Amino acid sequence: MVKAEAVHKHFGPVQVLKGIDLEVRSGEVFCIVGPSGSGKSTFLRCINHLEKINAGRLYVDGTLVGYREKNGKLHELRDREVAEQRRGIGMVFQRFNLFPHMTAVENVMEAPVQVKGVSKKEARERAEQLLDRVGLGDKKANYPAQLSGGQQQRVAIARALAMDPKLMLFDEPTSALDPELVGEVLDVMRDLARDGMTMVVVTHEMGFAREVGDSLVFMDDGVVVESGNPRDVLGNPQHERTKSFLSKVL
Ligand code: ADP
Ligand code: MG
């Protein structure tokens, strides 16, 4: 579902991704862990072309992200084509980014109506189903300010699912939550994984990574230091940098 080959990204003189190689298989939960500033968010943003890579190749579902290759040369896609690619990818951030002036159900139906041209009636029905699915059947008419952080994050997940993505990207989805609200969001993600969604999850929740993750990479300073089965990498890290990071977070 995702393939990165020697992905490089710099911001001015700052090299942030220094050759990322990895493969996310369809249907798996792929966790990315690593210290702050190691390039995790930047890498996620490259997957949906919110950031443009400077070298290497990045594919989603077999298609080059953001570019077309012709006679060995890369040509950047038009905005409309990039938007088309992004439509297949749902993203959930640390901050929930809900529209504050819209209710939960309106937040979830917005993109299908505006972007896909789905009728309001159909979009509302689907949005209600999705809110039921994330356990918010009784909060459909609430505005974000009337929801807890965990509830808002579950609305954000429902909103991403409303576009029927083939891939979901999560960037520290529980980091901004009070500790007692983390579990309800992880439960929704666990359900999603059980249903076979392909997920790339940047997280500091090592318990989640170990239980739900199928693969895990440890990133540091723009490279993948170590990768494998989450239980192996977390339980028996091979590299000094991984050991040192884990000793601080576990
Ligand atoms: P992580 O998510 O692992 O904490 P990030 O991908 O957010 O790391 O950031 C990696 C590095 O890239 C940091 O040094 C950060 O300051 C830098 N960076 C990220 N985005 C930008 C940007 N838009 N412009 C300049 N530097 C950036
Ligand atoms: Mg980050």
Describe this structure in words.
With 250 residues, the chain is α/β, with parallel strands linked by helices. The chain has 9 helices and 12 strands. The protein has a 6-stranded mixed beta sheet, with helices on both faces. A 4-stranded antiparallel beta sheet has the order 2-1-4-5, covered by helices on one side. It has a two-stranded antiparallel ribbon with strand order 6-7. Helix 3 (104-114) crosses helix 4, helix 3 runs parallel beside helix 5 and helix 4 (120-133) packs across helix 5. Magnesium ion binds at residues 40-41, 171.
Structural key phrases:
250 residues, alpha/beta, six-stranded mixed beta sheet, four-stranded antiparallel beta sheet, 38% helix, 27% strand, globular, binds adenosine-5'-diphosphate, binds magnesium ion, nucleotide-binding
Average pLDDT across residues?
96
Biggest β-sheet description: 6 strands, mixed
User: Rg from C-alpha positions?
Assistant: 18 Å
Q: Widest sheet: strand order? A: 8-9-10-3-11-12
> How many separate helices?
9
Structural class: alpha/beta
Percent in helix: 25-40%
Distance between the termini: 30 Å
Uncertain ranges: none
Order of helices and strands: EEEHEEEEHEHHHEHEHEEHH
Q: Report strand %.
A: 25-35%
| Ligands (ions, cofactors included) | adenosine-5'-diphosphate, magnesium ion
User: What oligomeric state best describes the polypeptide chains here?
Assistant: single chain
